[in-house]
Write a sequence for this structure.
């Protein structure tokens, strides 16, 4: 299965944003600082995941 770096980045950003949003919503209010934290979590996940290359597929198949 081949997964592009863009798809991995989007998935990682969604996961990081969701985790930050759940934490921010503990008191039922999202402040400006918490919103910034959510946005930075998404951007960081996108950038880090996009920057790390996919592992090259091996030519031999392991059993």
């Amino acid at each position: 299965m081949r997964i592009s770096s863009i798809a991995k980045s989007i998935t990682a950003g969604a996961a990081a944003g969701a985790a930050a949003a759940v934490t921010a919503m503990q008191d039922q209010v999202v402040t400006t600082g918490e919103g910034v934290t959510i946005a930075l979590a998404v951007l960081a996940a996108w950038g880090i995941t996009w920057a790390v290359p996919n592992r090259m597929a091996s030519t031999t198949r392991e059993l």
In short: Residues 20 and 37 are 7 Å apart (CA to CA). The first helix runs from residue 5 to 24.
